[in-house]
């Protein structure tokens, strides 16, 4: 038998280093990867109802193959679970299930489950180790890596949380085969973000290979997940707690978080869809301020269109608040410093930077143009 291809990326943080394994079939091999990390053969799995129905039995079998017992809790799927209620349920379940500090919590799901389970693991018994097993493209390329955990609050996205690094990430690209196309493309918004923020060569590779990736090519998917994780790991190793460079990973997110708040974290706009629109708007803003050539936003939009993705506010179904109200929502952004908004802008594709030197009128006019039509 030919061994399936896998790649490993190391997140080399002092005292908290961990591996990200990317490959097909990692769910079946979960026991093999988790066994050396366990003090006793028992794990607690936090997942959602959709993932549990599709993949939990396979994960339990992969763990049982190494005689690891699993208890599990499946929460409702969707962004609404990333809430105080969801956090209370997950944390109290861990405590009721007698999960000890020396045990492992397994976050088995997309970004919502990864962020929520990581936060619950960070606070239950003041900190339990956890493993990320991301099941969506978005979680595989982004949210499972780097230790940002948290929930949304009434005031906005991810406003309560903790930095809590996982001890291992297992990204099984075979799981992407069952993702609905909309879900896959939402994750692709984060993949494009990496090319746009720091690697023009990767963006060019996506321009060529994006459609293959969307259509299910395993090798192309593995490479996109590997390169995204590698780029994220490099940034996280330089700046774990976002004092500087890590804010680059927020390209598109200042717009996205305001749009998610404005659409009530509903199915009208998925996170990665908002990131893709936010990236297009960040390039518009950069061009409008004379920071990058006018052709760059058009190139970003052309690629999103090739992939069948939205790039404008007017593409979001239903009404949106005014540009001024969206700007006010951005005031809750975690990058705000001394009361001033900071944006991730770009000098070119692959050359992002952070600046607070952005006139509000320019933001309003970019938002208004994107909404009109
Ligand atoms: O890991 C990071 O750092 C990121 O900014 C990655 C983002 O893509 C991700 O959505 C993150 O959760 C957003 O972080 P936030 O601090 O802006 O809420």
TrEMBL record:
Primary location class: cytoplasm
Residue ranges occupied by any 3-dehydroquinate synthase C-terminal domain in the UniProt entry: 187-336
Coiled coil regions, renumbered to chain: none
Cofactor(s) needed for function: NAD(+); Co(2+); Zn(2+)
Pathway: Metabolic intermediate biosynthesis; chorismate biosynthesis; chorismate from D-erythrose 4-phosphate and phosphoenolpyruvate: step 2/7
Positions with a binding annotation for NAD(+): 111-115, 135-136, 148, 157
Protein name, entry field: 3-dehydroquinate synthase
Organism: Limimaricola cinnabarinus LL-001
